[in-house]
Amino acid sequence: MDVAKAAALLAAARDGDEARVRELLSPAGGSESDGPHEAPDGVTPLMAAAAGGYEAVVEVLLGHGADPARRDHRGRSAAAHARHAGHTTLAERLDTIVDKETTIW
Prior knowledge:
- This is Ankyrin repeat domain-containing protein.
- The protein is mostly helical and 105 residues long.
- The protein has 6 helices and no strands.
């Protein structure tokens, strides 16, 4: 993992900078989409974008393999970050994705 790139991605997601997020993501996805391992409180770019209510950034990150079920150091998912910040529609969207991934057919 490119730690500097992962940190820049986290900052861009936190700022809602969709163009910069797209620029930093690998076309085939990569470990950077989950942010740097030493991120404060274990917050990922997806969690940061969700907390900011940046729906377009969330969709870009999901499309590049960001894990919506991943938890921060306090056990909160991206949906929980969105919900806590008052972005209930975005939280419901993220919950739906996680529910679909855990459904056993």
